[in-house]
Each structure stands twice: as structure tokens, then as C-alpha cells.
Write a structure and sequence with these properties.
It is a single chain. It contains five helices and no strands. By secondary structure, the protein is an all-alpha fold. It has one domain: Four Helix Bundle (Hemerythrin (Met), subunit A). Helix 2 runs antiparallel to helix 5.
Length: 168
């Protein structure tokens, strides 16, 4: 196999761990009924976590069929971007349908889009092979940024309680 898998598998394991622990927290926090904002946070956490797992396994799968290391990372970045878009179109539609404002804190409204865009930029740089040829470093950095999103949603689910007057 022409690629190193240790870092990719470690990132995937961290994402799976966060998803599992968040499921336990969601059960305890919900007390029988989950608020729509908590449900949205949980869904975003699980989707981002699954995105990390799928994206971490993509290069390993691609390496079975492609020998050129640069092509592996370019194809993995392209497929990762397509998978990310496919994961979040339904979430965005659900959010618009229920008029959900999932982060009330202004700082969080800046952090999440910044982290998401930064991770996407690293994938895009790998796709176009600029300023350096496609490589595992850019790919792994984009996964770490997605893992940061998972961590932020994890903390939001565990700590931030929705306002009682928020009705959706």
C-alpha cells in the first residue's frame, strides 16, 4: 500500500469515540424528549463524525486501485468534498424547514463556518494540486478541521441548553 494509514485510522477512531460518547450524553441530556436544537446538534455531530470516518477510509480504499500517491490524495479530496456536500444538503433543508437557529452564541456563529471553510479550502488545494502537489498533509488537516467541528458540536450538546422560550 503506497500510503501511510496510521494517522487516518487514528483520526477515524477519535471520530467514532466522540460519536459514541455523544450518544450516551444525548440520552442523559434529553430526559425522555430531545429539544429540536439538541436534536440538530446531535445530527450535525453524528454527520460530521461519519464524514470524518468515511473520509479517513477513502484514501485507503482508493490506494487499492490507484498506484500514484498524488492521484490518491487528489481523488480522495474530490470524493471527500462530494460526500460532504451529499451529507449536508438534507441537514440544511431540515434546518430551513423548521427555521432552526442552532447556535445562539455569536462566537460560535463565527467559529463553525470558519472551521468548515478552512477544512474545505485544504481539500480544494489538494484537488487542484496548488501550491504543492496533492499530499496527505493537506488531506489530514482538512479531517482535523472537521474533527474540530465534531468536538464543538459535542461540547454544545453537553453544555449549552436551549432557551425554554425557543419554540420550533
Amino acid at each position: 500500500m503506497p500510503i501511510e494509514t496510521d494517522v487516518l485510522l487514528a483520526i477515524a477512531e477519535i471520530a467514532v469515540g466522540l460519536i459514541g460518547v455523544s450518544g450516551i450524553i444525548a440520552v442523559f441530556v434529553s430526559r425522555g424528549g430531545m429539544h429540536v436544537l439538541d436534536r440538530m446538534r446531535f445530527v450535525l455531530l453524528v454527520l460530521n463524525g461519519m464524514l470524518v470516518v468515511v473520509s479517513a477510509l477513502l484514501p485507503i480504499w482508493i490506494a487499492r486501485y490507484v498506484a500514484d500517491p498524488e492521484a490518491i490524495w487528489r481523488y480522495a479530496s474530490l470524493l471527500g468534498l462530494i460526500v460532504a456536500i451529499g451529507f449536508f444538503i438534507p441537514v440544511r433543508r431540515y434546518q430551513q424547514k423548521h427555521d432552526i437557529v442552532w447556535l445562539h452564541d455569536q462566537a460560535m456563529n463565527v467559529v463553525i463556518p470558519f472551521v468548515a471553510v478552512t477544512g474545505t479550502v485544504f481539500l480544494a488545494l489538494n484537488i487542484v494540486s496548488w501550491p504543492v502537489p496533492a499530499n496527505p498533509t493537506f488531506y489530514e488537516i482538512s479531517l482535523v478541521f472537521t474533527l474540530i467541528q465534531v468536538s464543538v458540536f459535542f461540547v454544545a450538546l453537553a453544555i449549552y441548553r436551549p432557551d425554554e422560550d425557543y419554540d420550533t
